[in-house]
Amino acid sequence: MDLPNLDLLSHVPQRWLEVAEKYLKAIPQVRSRLDKETGTVLAHLEKRLKPYKGTLPSFDRLPAQGRPRDEVLRELEGLERREETRWKEGHVSGAVYHGAEDHIAFVNEVYALHSQSNPLHAELWPSATKFEAEVVAMTANMLGAAEANTGLPPEQHICGSLSSGGTESIMLAIKTYRDWAQETRGITRPEMVLPISAHPAFDKAAHYFGVKSVRVPVGTDYRADVAGMRRALTRNTILLVGSAPSFPHGVIDPIAELSELARKRGLGFHTDACLGGFVLPWAKRLGYPVPPFDFQLPGVTTMSADTHKFGYAAKGTSVVLYRGQALRSHQYFTATEWPGGIYFSPTFSGSRPGGLIAAAWATLVTMGEAGYLEATGRVLETAKALKEGISAIPELHVLGDPLFVIAFGSNTLDIYKVMERMGTRGWDLNGLHKPAAVHLCVTLRHTQPGVAERFLEDLRAAVAHVRENPGEKGTMAPVYGMAGTVPFRGLLSDLLKKYMDLLYKV
């Protein structure tokens, strides 16, 4: 996609750009050109996203007669074999965090035993609530609850619930703060202050719950700017946010300073430890430099930590934690006037998959402290070798000082072309922007013999190819470049919505 020179627009106020974009999109010739350009991009994406089209049966309505189960199982097994190679060989960033066959088999067996259970019906499946309560308690104690609870009555202890993933954990926390601030402080136009590196789940929560998201630029070390976030506070601020670590750059924000700022102002503070919650406590015990980030800090009032990432549980569970039951109570929903009876639910979902809750519990109790220490040691040793290898490539530099999520960019090459070239060698990496970079989230898959060495070998070859072929445009690299430079946010948003439409296309 050929992009115009956008440098002249970089200092134009965003509200002016939004007005200009609205009028430009209304011009038929402009609209036609945009549709043509996005159509080209989507046609290319469809080939990658719909590889089974025309080769496997597809259904846009129920078959008149159900297919034989053995036939369906054979088809599913074939799809699994076709798709598992890349992640099993460690060619992806994040995505699958454990992946050993015996671990997967065990988790699947646990899920099968409890596939019909549902904590909505606690009297039928008390095991589901037992598992959930214990997963929350184990996670809380891993994240400083024992120290935080000392000398306090039970109702003030660290508590929480399970959610479907990090995004829901974050959204539950923001919804909770909104309701808490309205009830206790009378705030009806709530705001939260967070660094630009914080996960977009916070913006999603802001969108759904009417909370203004105030984003503050990070410092040169890619960590949250404490002074900048202090200046962004207003009478409507209800909470501050920090990441441990941030998804883009893998660095830990100054949680101690930020949470103390929140505590002194009587505000909430959320540590997003979705990525690091099941890594950092063990990294600290292994002697790595981990700054304080959890409930041992009195200003931290909520946290999120994903059991389905480095907790190694099956996909679909995360933990959201609160400093005390009074705060958590604002997360709950109750209905007392419904003709169908009294209704209540702790999270957004009503029915919830008890099988996933059981699988999370079984994973934590079989891993144990020793298992997490061993796994974390392997991940961090591999990450150290990768960070050193990337830094040794003259054209590349590592952003900040990460532990296990390694972002790297280039001052001389188009890093997106490097990423795309790595794609031709089977690697699936994450493209970042502002600044342009690529990252690799190191998991147990990368600790397998030879994987880190193969990554560095392929990266050196990709860099050499891009350096020696500067005129080569690539196919997706221009799209990543557009995401970081186009000032018209609506254009990019429109493209993303069409991408999601494509996912639902039969």
TrEMBL record:
A Pfam family hit: Pyridoxal_deC
Gene3D superfamilies the UniProt entry points to: 6.10.140.2150, Aspartate Aminotransferase, domain 1, Type I PLP-dependent aspartate aminotransferase-like (Major domain)
Classification via InterPro entries: GrpII_AminoAcid_Decarb, PyrdxlP-dep_de-COase, PyrdxlP-dep_Trfase, PyrdxlP-dep_Trfase_major, PyrdxlP-dep_Trfase_small
Keyword Lyase set for record: yes
Record protein name field: Aminotransferase class V-fold PLP-dependent enzyme
Keywords: Aminotransferase, Lyase, Pyridoxal phosphate, Transferase
Similarity-based family: Belongs to the group II decarboxylase family. Sphingosine-1-phosphate lyase subfamily.
GO molecular function: transaminase activity
Superkingdom assignment: Bacteria
Coiled-coil positions: none
Key word Iron present: no
Lineage of source species: Bacteria, Pseudomonadati, Myxococcota, Myxococcia, Myxococcales
Cofactor: pyridoxal 5'-phosphate
